[in-house]
From TrEMBL, chains A, B:
UniProt cross-references to SUPFAM superfamilies, sorted A to Z: GroES-like (SSF50129), NAD(P)-binding Rossmann-fold domains (SSF51735)
CDD domains in the cross-refs: PGDH
Protein source organism: Peribacillus muralis
Lineage: Bacteria, Bacillati, Bacillota, Bacilli, Bacillales
Protein name: NADP-dependent oxidoreductase
Keywords carried by this UniProt record: Oxidoreductase
Length: 342, 342
């Protein structure tokens, strides 16, 4: 062991509205010791994701809320420091959904080994991890884009959105992304090959969107909700499909989040809207990971990462998600490996 | 011919908000004469339906708007008065989607013969017609209720809603209806065998609904939208299905129809909401009609009709739909048959 004390991040408050740094508390503790068949891991990268905002509230959902004064948990890439399990050895690089901590003791079931030679380890928190699988299953299982159809994706320059658009292109659809800066629009059309991109922060957004989808909208992959979604709803084609992945525009709403009711538009178009979380597809992760890995190797799937250095900057990285400061997957680099070869 | 003049009802105005009698105009004309292979029919019963409110507006939808100063069209049971077609003969009872008129000349494709001996002819405008098929396909194809699941239906004492609840019972589900009077609640539970019924006009509605569905809501068949739907959305179970059939609460809204955004609840529950119209299932009508006819004969499916007498009262019958004055299917009896045996 190289150090005996470590930091964890716990949930200090359940935020009302936009979270602040004060909602997170850094707590010092002893580096724990593995017992039985446990494994001690050291965090290298951690993932901050919009869905975590929901877990900060004490409300019933598909996933239990974070507990007050307990460590926040999320996607982590770590190296094995000490193993009492036959399945893991010192220096293994692993991924799992574990504590926001510099060191964590985990059970065998909480982590799995990843191979740093196949793809950069950070991809397992992004395009080859839950992010990529979210895009893959939401788009293909619910959106079911057909060749020549028009797919619109909101939050298009984010980690999920950028994967959605590229997978839709692979399937032969016409893809229009909605994002919040000209830099992001350029990234979508120039780097990722989107057919169009529209800036929702411009006054001309509604008109711009209409012009960008002359044939209407067959699939709307929704990451944001709110006004952006209202605009897309006026352009739905008959039998439109709407995978509901996120509603980041509402996560920090303090009052009631109200808007035009959508039902009449859905009846008129026989549209289907389906909420989902990637966990629904756990039994098919292998299928998704295989396709995503193949497309990545073939160069058909690009990804971007925004990496903040330093465990102490984790709250800032998380808060940045709601300001749209990230391009692609937002990660925190917590440490350089000591035992693993990346 | 027994008369040479007849009345038609045309659309005089596109109403803003709640329609009034002044939006309909009675126009006298000659009784028309069939040419070629046409058929002259005499209206016996006509159907008034909430969806027609949408056709009074000049907006893009799944069905073309009614034209100003042209006859309104809808479901009609009529008798053949004069036929130039080999497929129809004087005295045949037919059903079709034709003009609101005492007499109409139609083509062979616009009508089909029905057998008055199998079931009362009015059932072809209700439980054995578009109404029953709407309930059948919306519930079974989108709602997919499983044995033991809880199905909630709004507008439950209406023509579609009462069929939905009974079909859900046939499929072994627990059924709770939402309606607007104690008389209707009693009809649902005592006559139709619903497991529960809740009055949305009571101050205690939200609590009453919660108590009525202790296991949450697996299927919500929505005929009304608005506040009623908002209340049901707080009670959705994981993987809930929501066939969107109508949104009668909003049809006459003058301002923007706004309410709480539903997306977050749908993501949390992985719920599926799908708008539909019965026309989507045209290729499967025979399947639906066969099942409905069988259940009707077996006494498993009951229906109620509210019949207003007199063609001149058609606008009142239509307007009553929005006040909830009807129990079951609202029909207008236009005339006694002269040639047909009912």
């Amino acid at each position: 062991m190289t150090q005996s004390k470590q930091q964890k991040i716990t949930l200090a408050n359940r935020p009302k509205g936009m979270p602040t740094k004060e909602d997170f508390k850094f707590v010092e503790s002893e580096v724990p010791t593995p017992n039985g068949q446990e494994i001690l891991v050291r965090t290298l990268y951690l993932s901050v994701d919009p869905y975590m905002r929901g877990r900060m509230q004490d409300t019933k959902s598909y996933i239990a809320p974070f507990e007050l004064n307990k460590p926040i948990t999320g996607g982590v890439v770590a190296e094995v420091v000490e193993s009492k399990s036959d399945s893991f050895k010192k220096g293994d690089v692993v991924v799992g959904n574990i504590d926001w901590a510099e060191y964590t003791v985990v059970t065998e079931k909480e982590i799995r080994v990843i191979d740093p030679k196949v793809a950069p380890v950070t991809t397992h928190l992004g395009i080859l991890g839950m992010t990529g699988l979210t895009a893959y299953f939401g788009l293909l299982d619910i959106g079911k884009p057909k060749e020549g159809e028009t797919v619109v994706v909101s939050g298009a320059a984010g980690a999920v959105g950028s994967a959605v658009g590229q997978i839709a292109k692979i399937k032969g659809a016409k893809v229009v992304g909605i994002a919040g800066s000209d830099e992001k629009l350029e990234y979508l059309t120039k780097e990722l090959g989107f057919d169009g991109a529209v800036n929702y922060k411009k006054d001309s957004f509604v008109d711009d969107l209409k012009k960008a989808v002359p044939d209407g909208v067959d699939v709307y992959f929704d990451n944001v909700g709110g006004d952006v979604t209202d605009a897309v709803f006026t352009l739905l084609n008959t039998n439109a499909r709407i995978p509901l992945c996120g509603a980041i525009s509402s996560y920090n709403a303090e009052g009631k989040d109200v808007g035009p009711r959508l039902q009449s538009a859905m009846i008129k178009t026989s549209a289907t809207m389906k909420g989902f979380t990637v966990g629904n597809y756990a039994s098919r992760f292998k299928e998704g990971a295989t396709d995503l890995g193949k497309w990545l190797q073939e160069g058909k799937l690009k990804y971007e990462e925004t990496i903040i250095e330093g465990f102490e900057n984790t709250p800032d990285a998380f808060l940045g998600l709601f300001k749209g400061t990230n391009l692609g997957k937002q990660l925190v680099k917590v440490a350089e490996p000591m035992f693993a070869q990346l």
